[in-house]
Amino acid sequence: MNHQKSATLFTQAKRSIPGGVNSPVRAFKSVGCDPIFISRAEGSRIFDADGNGYIDYVGSWGPMILGHCHPKVVEAIQRTAASGASFGAPTEKEIILAEMVCEAYPNIEKVRMVSSGTEATMSAIRLARGYTGRDKILKFDGCYHGHADSLLVKAGSGAATYGVPTSPGVPADVAKHTLTATYNDLSDVNNMVAANKGEIACIILEPIAGNMGCVPPRPGFLEGLRQLCDQEGIVLIIDEVMTGFRVAYGGAQERFGVRGDLVALGKIIGGGLPVGAFGGKKEIMEHLSPEGGVYQAGTLSGNPLAMSAGITTLQLLREEGVYEQIEEKAAYLEKGLLEAAKETSVPTCWQRVGGMFCTYFQQGPVNSFADALKSDTDAFGSFFRAMLESGINLAPSQFEAGFMSLAHSRDDLDATIEAARKALRAI
Ligand code: HOZ
Fold first, then answer.
1. 163 and 297 part of one domain
2. N or C: which end of the chain has fewer CB within 10 A?
3. Helix, strand, coil % (nearest 5) of the chain?
4. How far is the CA of 24 from the centre of ligand 1 (A)?
């Protein structure tokens, strides 16, 4: 494949944008090649500046569950844009999306729209602190909840990809309030809570960890956290930015039957436009300004374009059989990839929940960040590059999840399996 235009754009981008990208993992630094620059997308495919097409499993890191440029979403955005892109004032569309979110998540009685997942988790934490009057928070190694100071401690995603899980620039005085525990290890959490009794405002977690690959919760883990939070007066924040409306319409909480006190959402609820949201029990949400004293605000919060894209996306996801189709496609890909892997001696471990998945280059299973770090990232890099050259776009990091969309066809899946067979043989 020719990547000449992408290479030229990357050189140009590096002159005016740090690292040439607006989000670190996009630089492809950990997979040993330069990034492709995207010019357009349609359905299951994205196209780069050189005109190469790729079957896309990044899906803008999760939001594009319907596939790219779904005609109804495009139409909704265009129609809304014609009436004004932003007012900085309340609109009816915000109520419609808020009601749809509350209906999908029975534990969300009130919800506040923001513009990104980072804002959602950051604000949920402030609210949990304001509500409990406690400062400490507990997160899990390898979970990523955006890039707010208190959450960039032992973080996954780009931070893990580049080996800096706790970022320079996070003051020690801030980081000291963030406790970390091992994902899927309830006894570690119990010990941490016992050692900090009455001081922890909230436990925040990804109910399926999608920023260290794809790590499902072990049976009893979520239930144990719920019980512990109830006992200790700790707010349980379930970060469904990635899993919300993804692994079921009601997210991981519907799938696993465990509910948070607060929930962070993003990605799919914006239909590809910048959106985040946090919501939960009325009793907690009422502490938010202007009802209560905990401050949070945003010029573009509830932006009409984003609300329209989100409403239309959720309307389409409510149609009969959508999640069954995604499950069926992902299971088909899983079966093919497992067969392809068996034909080689390369150690791989496939983990999947619904339409989100990861191939780890190790025996597995992967239950925690320490497990994920045992992967052979060089082998992943070779696999990634070979797949890209065969026209398959994967997330450019061993520590990110892949996403299935409704637009992926049987032909796409067969082509992906065949490309993987070739790529694995070449390692
Ligand atoms: N950390 C994001 C995914 N987990 C990457 C976002 C992006 O680069 O767009």
1. yes
2. N
3. 40, 15, 40
4. 8
288: DSSP letter = B
Q: Which atom of ligand 1 is nearest to the CA of 24?
A: 8
Q: Is the pLDDT of residue 166 over 90?
A: no
Domain endpoint, select from 267, 296, 317? 317
Range in 47-56, 117-126, 171-180 with the lowest mean pLDDT = 171-180
User: Which structural domain, as residue segments, surrounds residue 140?
Assistant: 71-317
Question: Smallest Cα–Cα separation from 222: which of 181, 263, 260?
Answer: 260
3-state secondary structure 160-214: HHCCCCCCCCCCHHHHCCEEEECCCCHHHHHHHHHHCCCCEEEEEECCCECCCCC
Q: pTM to 2 decimals? A: 0.97
From 21, 23, 116, give the residue whose CB has the most ligand 1 atoms within 8 Å, as the site to mutate: 23
> What mean pLDDT, rounded, does the chain reach?
97
Q: Is 398 in the pocket of ligand 1 (CB under 6 A)?
A: no
Token readout for 28 is 């492809």
| 23 CA: nearest ligand 1 atom | 8
Query: Using an 8 Å Cβ cutoff, are 234 and 202 in contact?
Result: yes
For the chain, the domain total comes to 2
Burial of 293 (0-12, 13-18, 19+ CB in 10 A): exposed
Percent of the chain scoring above 70 in pLDDT:
100
**Cα–Cα dist 249/414, whole Å:** 27
